[in-house]
Design a protein that fits this description.
The chain is an all-alpha fold and 58 residues long. It contains two helices and no strands.
Length: 58
Amino acid sequence: MIIQWLWETIMEVHQVVQSLQTAAGADPQFSISCLLVAESASNILNPFNRAAEAADSL
């Protein structure tokens, strides 16, 4: 249940990253925002993966 909730949030962040990538392709001023959000998303994925593995082992 918690992992599903976290996954839904990660998917929302993924959609934001995709939108920023599209915007950065059209206007370079969005490149820095895209980079920062993508890095943050990457930092979120590592703990999520550990949590998912821990939940699977229960």
